[in-house]
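In the design runs reported in the main text, the only information available to the sequence generator was the tokenized backbone. The following block is the verbatim input for one such run; it is reproduced so that readers can re-run the procedure and compare outputs position by position.
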């Protein structure tokens, strides 16, 4: 029996193509797993799944309004955290694609992380763990 884990997160964005370009700039090994179009309560929308064989982001376009700011106290997602092998390489790829950093995470002996807000106001955390011990990572 497989242990419970998060398979995907479903996120509505304003501009699907820009969000996909951001994700692929950060994570070029990720792929679009599937895509299509739906009639979402009378409004046409495109969707796609982007990620790996075991985990992905389900994205749908046509979002309206502004994303919640990560410093607020509203109900909802603060950021999407993605473990990477080399956070410095992610930062370089994002900078080359025109994405500025929001901020680096605090100094920590067992992890290195950075936060980036993409154009649809979604915040992503890219984290590189420097320890295999869960207690040290937290």
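Verbatim output:
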């Amino acid at each position: 029996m497989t242990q419970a884990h998060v398979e995907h997160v479903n996120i509505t964005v304003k501009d699907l193509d820009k969000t996909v370009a951001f994700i692929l700039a950060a994570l070029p090994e990720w792929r679009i797993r599937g895509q299509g179009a739906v009639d979402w309560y009378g409004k046409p929308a495109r969707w796609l799944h982007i990620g790996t064989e075991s985990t992905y982001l389900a994205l749908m376009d046509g979002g309206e309004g502004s994303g919640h700011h990560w410093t607020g106290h509203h109900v909802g997602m603060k950021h999407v955290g993605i473990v990477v092998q080399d956070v410095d390489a992610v930062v370089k790829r994002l900078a080359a694609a025109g994405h500025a950093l929001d901020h680096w995470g605090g100094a920590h002996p067992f992890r290195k992380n950075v936060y980036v807000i993409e154009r649809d106001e979604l915040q992503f955390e890219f984290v590189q763990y420097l320890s295999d011990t869960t207690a040290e990572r937290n």
